[in-house]
Amino acid sequence: METQYKLYPLLLSRIFLMKVWGSNSIRWAMKREIDDLPRIGELWETYDGDNGSVITNGKYRLRSLSEMVQEFQQALLGDRLKEYVNRPFPLLIKYLFPSQALSVQVHPDDEYAMKHENSNGKEEMWVVLEAKPESFIIVGWKEGLTKQDITASIADRKFNDIMNVVHPEPGQVFYIPPGSIHALGPGLTILEIQQNSDITYRIYDWDRPDESGKFRDLHIEKALQVLDFTHTPQYHISPLVVNHGGGDCRFLCACSHFAACMWDIRAKIEMESDRGAFWIFNVISGSGKIVRGDSWDDQPLEQGDTVVIPAHMGPFTVEPSDFSMRIVKSWVPDLFNDIISPLRKAGFCDSDIIGLGGYKIKNDIKSAL
To answer: Do 131 and 231 lie in a common domain?
Structure first.
């Protein structure tokens, strides 16, 4: 639906979540150190629940994201996403700052989650923003294990025998489909793009009590029902780079629930919103602005900002103020028109494009070809 007011780039507030594994220093997001900071594990950037994200700029300042969706509906969400008007916002964007390892865990798919949790499932991807030499992630199983090997080791709590450990580097991208065993280790800064769900089945929590001295619940029975026991050679995805004059666009990952690309913007780039679906911009480094023209105020951008680009917003330009500004754009894609077709035109073969959808048997891009 259209309204009498034109939409503009919506700058969002964030939700701070304390975690037993969190960090007392999240300078990357805050641009400065804050004394006596509690253990912040996650920043939720697009949360539309109670006490969720609110607009912090322009005419709709202090309106909640959920209120904006209800008022503007597909003008904000997009013509392809109008069914989300009365559902949770399609994407939940997070930053994570572990100083200890997260629990070893798994997420269910949509079918299982709807049946057992009355919720959609959780498919996600990680962009590694910072990593120390000793940082690690756990993703998938060691090679050569059978289902019986894995279930026996879980029962005997011999997790080191089965977990695949990877030492990530800044800039790497990991795709975590439902059913994948995974965990983040300490010393990382991660941008996580996921379905809007917080359903997590913990398998192992490092025998670690929380700040009250209690141990967090485990969910072994449900985890065993949703775990994918097949071996995957790698979860790391190789981005595909396309030059757009004002900067390079790296296609990072794509599935039916989300897609993401990283823009390294070195000069002004003209864009136009997609009437099919909203975009989310996360400013990873540098600074700049979004320019609308006419009587609209420019929207400044700096590291850590999260901005929703409404579907029916229209044309705009993105201009860096430093030598370069890096933005991760995420959205709910039309896989053929948004991913396959432009990458084919850029000269990439189908096998490279399919790689953006991960290495599991189920690959949404392959299904869309």
So the answer is: yes
